[in-house]
Amino acid sequence: MDTEEKLKKLKDTITTLESVVVAFSGGVDSSLVAKVCYDVLGDRALAVTARSETYPAYEYEDAVKIAKEIGIPHMTIDTSELGIEGFAQNPPNRCYFCKSELFGKLKEIARKKGYKNVADGANLDDAGEYRPGLDAAKELDVRSPLKESGLRKSDIREISKYLKLSNWDKPPYACMSSRFPYGNSITEEKLAIVASAENYLRSIGLKQFRVRHHDTIARIEVPSEDIPTLLRNGRRKDLVKKFKEIGYKYVTLDMEGYRSGSMNEVLSQQNNKKG
Predict the structure, then answer these.
(1) What gap in Å lies between CA 238 and CA 236, rounded to an integer?
(2) Which of 230, 168, 185, 232 is nearest to 204 (CA)?
(3) Do 7 and 80 have their domain in common?
(4) pLDDT tens readout for residues 7-21
(5) For the chain, how far is it from start to end, CA to CA, in angstroms?
(6) Among 112, 134, 162, which residue terminates a domain?
(7) NAD/GMP synthase domain: which residues (predicted)?
(8) What is the pTM of this model?
(9) Which of 117, 23, 143, 20 is nearest to 77 (CA)?
């Protein structure tokens, strides 16, 4: 299918929603859902963004900006993942607890305001990854227009660019909780340390990165082509100094480079041993 055919399929799917509350983070996926929902349904579509300890301020600012760009009515709610029983202990199904609370709140908003459905930004590629949040969406009958339309991440960027969404090429973002190994508790203090470290990487011009938090060790992931950026012109020393000021004792660079969901690699290894 060409871009227009893919877009038409998505519009046809969204037409079946009739009216919808969109779980809106400001990322590429939820932005496309919000954009097409607003184009198709007009004011029968509402974007809702949840602010919490695991959602950085700069991401929220981006979400507000994109919502204004789209024109869709936009609502902000406050949530606290750390207050959800079981979440802060950081089990492998941590995302299930988070999404259950979020989607539950969005369903309640939809009920009170008269919207028929709740929709998220899950796409076809997500089905091949470990994403416990998908179980929560299924249990609460949350619709996934991108996945239902058979769209993958590459299709989403293609359509977003076609529609001139300014964030069509935005790097993928994951909840800050993904920076911690499973079983290591998550606290506001730890989240603040990781946020400071990642803000520094952003300040030196990097766009895609993760700081994985291993107690006193920071494991930095950047795409392999960006590794020289961290090493040239004395930047390595500046980075180490900054990270130690933030609170880390050791600063490491993951030579395997950036990869989405690297903390899940441990789960795969454990499952292989059991097999």
Answers:
(1) 5
(2) 230
(3) yes
(4) 999 999 999 999 999
(5) 40
(6) 162
(7) 16-81
(8) 0.89
(9) 23
